[in-house]
Amino acid sequence: MNKVLSLLGIFIVFFITSGAGYMGSLPDIESEFSYLRKEASEKSIAPYSVDELDKQNESMLKPVPRDNDNYVDIIIKKDKSSKYMNDVNRVIMILEKLRRCINTDRDIQKFNAIVSNLIDNVEYIRKEYQTQPESNYLSYSRLLYISNEARDVASYRMKEQTAKKYIPYNSEVNIYTKENYEFKMESLLNNVNDTIFILKNLE
């Protein structure tokens, strides 16, 4: 009996190791699921580049209508009084004109006209809010500062025009040199930019 069982065991081991097994064909998994890989790769490709998306967003955004008092009252009104916000917005538009003038032709007549408008508007704000809580705002003190600086630069430019006629450029007493002129204009431009930033970020 034991001999029969041992022979049977040997036969089974021989049958298993002889390569006998499943004789059918396996399904073609590669082709069956290729469409899933295609869909995944198509979804992973962005339809637009980052630059294209930025351009689309810019074209959809409308420019801020700072010349519209209702926009200030409804859209960007915060803790400040709407009247103060409206007055500040008018000065922002004047400062932006002054910045364009400095960056482009620096025409003295245009420059003086813009500065005169700035001085008038800031003087109105000074008188209107000097006894009000708004006088403690950084924006208020910054307006007074930029108005005074713009007035000084405008005065300097007028004197420079006169000095050109009567004082030699290389004279030791001539303070109206090109270097001084450029320094004052650059300083004014930097302060105009800083003031615009402060005024546009009132909190």
Descriptive account of the structure:
By secondary structure, the chain is an all-alpha fold. It contains nine helices and no strands. It has helices at residues 2-17, 29-32, 34-44, 50-60, 69-74, 82-103, 108-129, 138-166, 178-200. Helix 6 packs antiparallel against helix 7, helix 6 (82-103) packs antiparallel against helix 9 and helix 8 runs antiparallel to helix 9. The chain is elongated and about 50 Å long. The model is unreliable at 74-80 (pLDDT under 50).
Structural class: mainly alpha
Which regions have little confidence, pLDDT < 50, spanning 5+ residues?
Answer: 74-80
Number of beta-strand segments: 0
Q: In what range is the share of β-strand residues?
A: under 5%
Quaternary state of the chains = single chain
Helical coverage, percent range: over 70%
End-to-end C-alpha gap: 101 Å
Overall pLDDT confidence? 76
Quick one: biggest sheet? none
What's the tally of helices?
9
Radius of gyration: 39 Å
3D shape? elongated
| Pattern of helices and strands | HHHHHHHHH
Write the topology of this structure.
Layout: H1 2-17, H2 29-32, H3 34-44, H4 50-60, H5 69-74, H6 82-103, H7 108-129, H8 138-166, H9 178-200
Helix pairs in contact: 6-7, 6-9, 7-8, 8-9
Short structural description:
Helices cover 71% and strands 0% of the residues. By secondary structure, the chain is an all-alpha fold. The model is unreliable at 74-80 (pLDDT under 50).
